[in-house]
Each structure stands twice: as structure tokens, then as C-alpha cells.
């Protein structure tokens, strides 16, 4: 659910970005779209086969998405909100990575 929420919130942020920005396509928007798609894919993996590796993949996708906010010197209140929401949504994935079994056959 955390990964799906992350994807939905990223989608809403992209709609706002495309509505407000003069330069629609840049590396930040491409990164956000890619991370949203990967989060949905990883969510399906966690749902169908809940393993520690899939939870870690979800954590990686969410942390990788934070690259789009840039260095701390360029942050705005939106950047702080993005970091805060991302870390709140990371909590269930970190818990899952701790308690789920390894994928061993």
C-alpha cells in the first residue's frame, strides 16, 4: 500500500508540475515517472511474492526518487514535504524488509 500511495502522490505531483512549469520534460520529471512506474511494479511483486528482496527493491525505488529534489541548498518547502512524506511511506517497507523471509528455494 505504501508503494501504491507513493506512486499516486508522485502522479499528483507530476500533474502539478506539468500544469505549472514552462519546461515540462527534464530529467526530474522523467525520474519521477520512472520511479512511479517502478513503485507500482514493485508493489505488485511485494503483493504476489512478499520477500525481503522485494521490500528492499521498493525501498531503493523510493530513495532513488529523492534524487530529483537536488542538493539541500536548493530545497524549498516542497522539497522538505517530499522528503517527509517519502520517509513516512518508507516505514512499512523497512518493517517488511526486517520481518519478511529471504527468498530461498
Offer a few descriptive terms:
4 helices, 74% helix, mainly alpha
Distance between the termini: 26 Å
- Are there runs of 5+ residues with pLDDT below 50, and where? none
Biggest sheet, in brief?
A: none
Query: What structural category characterises the helix and strand content?
Result: mainly alpha
Q: Order of helices and strands, N to C?
A: HHHH
Number of strands: 0
- Give the fraction of residues assigned to helices: over 70%
* Beta-strand share of residues: under 5%
At a glance:
With 105 residues, the chain is mostly helical. The protein has helices at residues 2-20, 27-48, 52-65, 77-99. The chain is elongated and about 45 Å long.
Question: Secondary structure elements and their pairing?
Answer:
Layout: H1 2-20, H2 27-48, H3 52-65, H4 77-99
Describe the protein:
The chain has 105 residues and is mainly α. The protein is built from four helices and no strands. It has helices spanning 2-20, 27-48, 52-65, 77-99. 18% of the residues are buried. The mean pLDDT is 90.
Amino acid at each position: 500500500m505504501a508503494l501504491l500511495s507513493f506512486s499516486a502522490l508522485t502522479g499528483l505531483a507530476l500533474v502539478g508540475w506539468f500544469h505549472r512549469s514552462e519546461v515540462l520534460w527534464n530529467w526530474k520529471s522523467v525520474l519521477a515517472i520512472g520511479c512511479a512506474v517502478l513503485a507500482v511494479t514493485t508493489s505488485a511483486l511485494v503483493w504476489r511474492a512478499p520477500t525481503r528482496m522485494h521490500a528492499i527493491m521498493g525501498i531503493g525505488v523510493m530513495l532513488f526518487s529523492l534524487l530529483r529534489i537536488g542538493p539541500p541548498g536548493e530545497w524549498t518547502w516542497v522539497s522538505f514535504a517530499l522528503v517527509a512524506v517519502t520517509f513516512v511511506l518508507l516505514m512499512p517497507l523497512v518493517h517488511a524488509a526486517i520481518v519478511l523471509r529471504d527468498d530461498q528455494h
